[in-house]
Amino acid sequence: MHIITLFSRWLALFTAVSLLATPAWALQSPTGDVILTVSGKIGQANRDKAAAFDLEMLQKLPQQTFVTKTPWDKNPTKFTGPLLRDVLSAVKSNGKTLTALALNDYKTTIPAEDASLYDVIVAHKIDDMPIPVRTKGPLFIIYPFDSKPELKASKYYGRSAWQLKSLKVD
To answer: According to the model, what pLDDT value does residue 135 have?
Structure first.
């Protein structure tokens, strides 16, 4: 009886330690077309030392929506997608700088701290509609320009990137 009790306690302890060691959310492999690749200083990868996301994976992250005026549109525009900080958290990012690269080869550098200072999103919808490639899609890193006066500046406009295809964390 004593051996069974010791074994039961050992098994309970082993199970508890195993659960603590298992990540609460593991980055799954994409099943659809990859629309975002995050590489560099990340702790969670699912493809060739990078994190590949399809649209469904991005939609499973908590979604945010805001309306803001941009220098590219006459009227305020509604953007929806996960917070950039949540995307970086999903890949266990540990860098200080992000290099965003667009399908049209536009490249911009974003301080990683912007993701925690501001509610920057990786938008996959504009005005509740998916973003076609021909109109800034499929993804758009966008700042909530109207939320803080300092965001209405060319440096933040330049950090926004439409037709986003990849982020490199350095």
So the answer is: 87
